[in-house]
């Protein structure tokens, strides 16, 4: 199997505090990888290192075949990123946002035009193209910002709680978009607070107190902890956590 | 009453825990006073001067040579009469003119007493005082040399003449100026930011839902800044008296009383800004661009108001700092009493009252 | 007694351009734990702000403890506790300072009502000299709850107290709410998490400013009009795709380890029919079983109706 993320004993220290402690895991091409953990378990720290936003204290990692220390710029070209907190510019229109984000990833004018038309078509947003993003319902914003995050056809897309607060129907439509992206060969790395979404992942890792405490398919995890839902798996693992945020 | 006091207590905690801002607040007046007081009157080199020598004798020539030799001066021209001096000043090319009267050497040798006139362009008062000081020092050196040769009580009077700004306002200008700026900065900017911060943080929501009278929220916010401003005022006054040697000629009590009035004006302005803005950046921007910059421009301590076009002079009337500046100068410099400043005080009082009424009308007991 | 009553409440923003709440009516009984369940942007926060007298409604009327939210806002403000969605305490004050401050603002003292917050406060006690900004998410939430309770309010408004909080802390928080309810406090809580609905006595499902259903969670579930089935196979992604295309399927939604489906046809042989269809599509390890709907099933059903 093709490995797109490979980490070996990746560690991040802030003074005495070890935010992420010797994280080792692989993510394979075309996989939906669920990255779970309680508040403060170190998810954000780990994700920042993987995106090339923060330099690890020790350990090694390659993302899309690029070294995390030496090739941060290459990594950034090959990944997409979307978070619940920052996604798009609220005071720019739908089209302006698409053009802007396409532009910073170096898409040519022709590609941009093609891609944005195609994207608007798929999302069924033709009548909203000239509307400010701020005026769109949350669900649409999230779908749009996901589509923008994969506009440059990255190898991996990192999604940080992409469906927080979204209604149940839109949440499922959002996952349809994720499946489509996976079909086109993009690897998805996702964090979520919704445990039913954890079930949609091919494999799940659970972070507790800066360490990866469990990593397997949802079915095997449930089996391992002899429970029937991911909710219970999470509870079993996170209950013993010593630190929170 | 208990809850007002805990509110004020809380405001003080906010102020003291934000060390950086606190440092800036107290550092600022000190830095400004020192900047205006010393840095701006720094050593001057190669100031361009002209000499008008009616004497053309040995003594005048020797002094001119000395001036030439000094690093401070660069003699542009030897002129023939006073009229040319005026013309050269108007061209703005020179900083000082040195005038030797006819019979300079004769008077010195026979009457043991003579005069040199130093004419400076005092529209730049700091430079004017500095360079005329240098020049009289050089002339004194010459006299001392003479006295060592012949033990006679030679006397050369240097007569200083400032043109364009005969009062030489610099020293007395910036202390009242800094006072009004600092008070504005603390009261308008800090207060508006502090209130808007509660809106931004969401704590205003909880306060509004409490039985605490919302208007008291704002009154309590103003108290620490009133206190801080009075401390700042004291620091400025102490610095100006003991470091810059500028005495307070009038009543200190009166000075504090009108300053408190001005602080109230500024606080109500800060309130008005916080009432109409929702983010700390907006409050800061409005305070800086809308209050501080016009105050610097129209108060009269940096740019003389008399030289401004009439419409701009009219604009200056609505700037509270202008009136405060006049009051402070009258009390500190001229030593005048309340009878001399009641008009300006009344203007400030009226402004404060108006601002408070607008504030009360605009005050929101709910979110929008 | 009805502690909170809303009659045809409406609220718009931007001069009527955005309809945040439209014609919402419901009531909360004394001592009840009532949940307002809906996604972001459904109008939950606007309703909370109207009830806590922070916003004026554009239409309709509302009362808290029998007092009108517009006319008697001053009295209401003395008697309600409010925890806004965003953490709204002073980050630069310590735990103790925050608590003392809010107690005094509400004309009381920590001592006077300590018994009410004791259970929660003991967990905070070790950090009482720590600044609120330095607390963990769960601790912040507990402190905010203490501050909202300190004056022994008759009605407690909690706007999305568990958003962004992990499963463990959420569980703890709901346990705290249950204990508070036993003290006789009426609690109105909002949440975007559908699974929390069953922890409330009665709930209102809200979407785009309108209430879709109000009842006990059990009744809402019983009112689900269709027979619901859970399906799974080895390839869940393809399964979802194939189910959506199958003519006998009326609705199909992913629900964690299973997909939930309803049939167009209620005849007993539809189940076998579906399994045949799926086998034709080469699905393996097919499992099909009837399930009790969850609140989320009901919410989706009501949204799509």
UniProtKB/TrEMBL annotation, chain A:
ABC transporter domain boundaries: 5-234
Nucleotide-binding among keywords: yes
Keyword ATP-binding annotated: yes
Classification via InterPro entries: AAA+_ATPase, ABC_transporter-like_ATP-bd, P-loop_NTPase
Coiled coil: none
GO function terms (MF aspect): ATP binding; ATP hydrolysis activity
One Pfam family this sequence matches: ABC_tran
UniProtKB keywords: ATP-binding, Nucleotide-binding
Designated name of the protein: ABC transporter
Source taxonomy: Bacteria, Pseudomonadati, Bacteroidota, Sphingobacteriia, Sphingobacteriales
Automatic annotation (TrEMBL), chain B:
Alphabetized UniProt keyword annotations: Cell membrane, Membrane, Transmembrane, Transmembrane helix, Transport
Signal peptide: none
Subcellular location per the Swiss-Prot or TrEMBL entry: Cell membrane
GO cellular component: plasma membrane
Transmembrane segments: 22-40, 170-195, 226-248, 254-273, 285-305, 340-360
Limits of the ABC transmembrane type-2 domain: 136-366
Molecular functions (GO terms): ABC-type transporter activity
Record membrane topology: Multi-pass membrane protein
Alphabetical list of Gene3D superfamilies matching this protein: abc type-2 transporter like domain
Family: Belongs to the ABC-2 integral membrane protein family.
Protein name from the UniProt record: Multidrug ABC transporter permease
The species this protein was found in: Sphingobacterium gobiense
Lineage: Bacteria, Pseudomonadati, Bacteroidota, Sphingobacteriia, Sphingobacteriales
TrEMBL record, chain C:
Domain ABC transporter: 4-233
Gene3D superfamilies from the UniProt entry: P-loop containing nucleotide triphosphate hydrolases
Keyword Glycoprotein among UniProt keywords: no
GO MF annotations, alphabetized: ATP binding; ATP hydrolysis activity
Alphabetized UniProt keyword annotations: ATP-binding, Nodulation, Nucleotide-binding, Transport
The keyword Nucleotide-binding appears for this protein: yes
Domain of life: Bacteria
InterPro entries reported for this sequence: AAA+_ATPase (IPR003593), ABC_transporter-like_ATP-bd (IPR003439), ABC_transporter-like_CS (IPR017871), ABC_transporter_ATP-binding (IPR050763), P-loop_NTPase (IPR027417)
Family designation: Belongs to the ABC transporter superfamily.
PANTHER family associated with the record: ABC TRANSPORTER ATP-BINDING PROTEIN, ABC TRANSPORTER ATP-BINDING PROTEIN NATA
Protein name: ATPase
Protein's organism: Sphingobacterium gobiense
